[in-house]
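Forwarding these from the shared drive since the link keeps breaking.
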Amino acid sequence: MKYAYEDLGWEQFEALIVILCQRLLGISVQGFAQGLDGGRDAKFVGTAELHPSKVAPWVGTTIIQAKHTNGYNRNFSESDFFSTSTANTVLGKEIPRIKKLRANKQLDNYMLFANRRLTANAESEIRAHIAKECGIPEASIYLCGLEQLELWLKTFPGVAKLSNLDPIDSPLIVSPDDLAEVVQALARQKDGVTAVLDDPPTPRVTYEQKNTLNNMTGEYAKAQRRKYLKETKQIHVFLAAPENLELLRLYESVVEEFQLKIIAKRKNYQTFDEVMEYLVDLLFKRDPVLRQQGHKRLTRAMLFYMYWICDIGEVGDAATN
């Protein structure tokens, strides 16, 4: 089966890769705790059992890295992951660490796993780049993308079970698809929506009560209200328009998912400021429509609207006061 790797937490993905490498290299593959890993998420010392083959296995110290993204349909060739013209990429930031390990004779072989698509051309280019920059033979470098990862998990079906790929344990992950459609439509119609900007929709509880219940800090709440309150009436009018009934249904599905996920995962966040900023960052990472320059403000305004009218966040006892 195919797994929604983008819905996993990075810890879950790393655990999956460590257990997979125990099958490929040997049971003594050692994973490391969260922290400064110095360019390594796991390590194996010795003669590999299966990789690259039983006939000609790797020997020595193999360093393993797992690079996880919550983004959809990402690939190794994207400029944020790999570029020969800048070091400000995911891989570019790892190169100095790999070089240091190599220079200190702590690395003979290097494996990089990522939940991204990997084409043959990209694999050749990236492997050659690492070899050149770090002084590692190309034959001692292995890159694994989604396609090969799926094949490995079919070869070793018990790995996924041992990794406990349970969505219940995943972080606060929401789908951006329906929200992107609503934001895109709002952006097209926004100039045509007539609204009295000084008369925003009334929240079910006062803003102050809501902030207290949800532990949103006063400074963050004030900034949100100042920046986005004027947008709420336009969003309200837009969603209430009869011709936008299907978009209203999409919005309702979005807030249902967001609210239930927030309730389930809220314990991981100290303030609702953190919840809101986490959602914004996640949505921008996962959807190219939402992270377009013209749509970023509308996305933030839409999240504030959800909070303002109490579609997300706790309402609690304040509703009965």
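-- next protein --
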Amino acid sequence: MITTASSFDEALDLANDAKFGLHAGVFTRDLGRGLEAGNRLEFGGVLINEVPTFRADQMPYGGVKDSGNTREGPAFAIKELTEERLVTLQG
């Protein structure tokens, strides 16, 4: 399905109305608009001038809304498999 928007703001609003929020791709020549999309879009990741399926292992990958609430990637795996513990020593 392709949906057209009459303005950049409307396009961001339409994207945010989706019930899923894994990753979004924004293509623009205007870096300011790309960064604005990164701030406003309610997705687990926003890729500027790249398809939303792009992924590198060091990137946190995951979604929001009906796309889930977790992240995956090496840093998140280490955190998931580590038990934090506080130990204090008084001299």
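The chain has three helices and six strands. The two ends are 67 Å apart (CA to CA).

- D.
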